[in-house]
Give the backbone structure.
Amino acid sequence: MSLPADFESAANEAWERVRAAPGFLTEREARFLALIAAAAPGRGTILEIGSFKGKSTVGLASVAARYGLGKVVAVDPFTAPSSTDPDLRGAASSYDDFRRTLAQAGLADQVEVHATFSKNLARGWSRPIRFLWIDGDHTYHGAKQDLDLFAPHLVDGGIVALHDVLHRFEGPIRVFVEDVLRSDRYGPAGFCGSIGWAQFRPQDGSAPRFREGRRALARWAARLIPFSARRGLSGLGKLRYQLLRALVPHGDADPDAWVELIALS
C-alpha cells in the first residue's frame, strides 16, 4: 500500500479521538499506529491485543473506517487488577468504559470486540493479519504467548508492534529483542516512542540490509532487559537505565520515509 493523499488529515482526526479517550498512549505513538493502520502492505485484519478503555482502539478504528479497512478486532478480558492498568477505583472491569469510549467516538460499529483472553480467541483464529498490535499481558510469558499464537497469521509485509518495550516491563522488551529483532522472519524494524515494530518478511528478512539493522537495534535494546526485569530501580541503577533507554533511537516516524522503508519489492 502507499500513503493515502489525505493521511495527515486522517491522522489528525484519529489523534483527536485518541486524545479524548482515557488510557496511556502518547501523541507520537498514536500517530504511528495510525500510519501503520493506513499504510501497512497486504490484506488482512487489524488485531489489537489489550484494549483497556479503548484509547488505541479508537485511533485504529478511526483510520480503518476512513479507508474501508474493515472492523478492528479487539480482544481483552477487561478484568482488574493489572500491572499495566491504572487504578480502576474499585471497579472489577474496564469494559463499560471501553464501550463508552467507542460510543463517544462514534466507532462502536467499527470494532469487533472479544471480551476474553487472547489465548481463547487464538483457538479458533484463522484470519490473515495485516497489523498485529500487542499491548496486553506485559509479563514475559504473556507477551511471548501473544506473539507465538498470532504471528503465524501475519501476511507477508504485515506489521507486528509491541507497546511498552521501552518501559520497565520484562515481557515486551525481551520478546521484541529475542523473538523479533533476532529473527530473520522480519525485515525492517524500529522504535517509535515506546513501540517496537517490525515487518513480517519471511522471504527476504535475512537480507543483509535488514539483518544488520535489526541486529544493531537488538544490541542497544538488549541492554535494557536486565533493568526491565527489576522493579523499584533507584539511584545509579535508575540513571543507567534512563541513559541506555535514551540511546535507543525512538523518535517520530516520518510517514513518507516509513512507507518507502516497508515497500515490498
